[in-house]
Amino acid sequence: MLAALWAEDLQGIIGKDQTLPWHLPNDLKYFKEMTIGKTIVMGRTTFEGMGSRPLPNRQTIVLTRNPDYQAEGVTVMHSVDDVLAYAKTKEEPTMIIGGAVVFQDFLPYYDLLYRTVIEEKFSGDTYFPSLEWQDWELVSSIPGVTDEQNVYSHRFETYRRK
C-alpha cells in the first residue's frame, strides 16, 4: 500500500527554498505519528534539505537517478518500480513524503492521501501536483488545534482512492 503525506497552504504550496514556508508544530507532530515505525520515501533533494540524515525509528528510502549516490543510514533506490516492489512486501503503508517530483512520480499508485491543509496563503516555489479529486473519497477531516504555538488554522484530511 502506498500513501502520500504532505502539508499545503490554500494555494497548494508545499515548499519554499527547499524548506517549509510555515512553522506548525501540530503538523510536525502529526507527521511523526503518521510515519513512526513505517517506511518513508523521499527524493534526494528533500533528504538533503532535511540535513542528509534519516529520521529516527523509520526506514528511510532516498529516491535518486544518480547511480553513485550513497548516504549513511538509508536505503537508496533509483526507480519508482523499485519502490513499488518494496512497498508490496510491507503490511503498513509506505509513506511518500516528497518533494514535488517524487509526489508526481507516484500519483498513479497512491492508495491513501494524508493532507494537512493550512488555512493561509504563503509565498513559495513548490506545489503539490494536481490531483483528479473525483477519484478520491474524503474519509476524515479533523480540525487542528490553534493556539500560541500553532497560529495557523489547519485541518488533517485523509482520502482513499475510490
Automatic annotation (TrEMBL):
Supply the InterPro entries for this chain. DHFR, DHFR-like_dom_sf, DHFR_dom
Q: Which Pfam families match?
A: DHFR_1 (PF00186)
* E.C. numbers: 1.5.1.3
A Gene Ontology molecular function term for this protein is: NADP+ binding
- So which residues are the signal peptide here? none
Every copy of the DHFR domain together lies at: 1-161
The task this protein performs is described as: Key enzyme in folate metabolism. Catalyzes an essential reaction for de novo glycine and purine synthesis, and for DNA precursor synthesis.
**Family designation:** Belongs to the dihydrofolate reductase family.
Name under which the protein is recorded: Dihydrofolate reductase
Source organism: Enterococcus aquimarinus
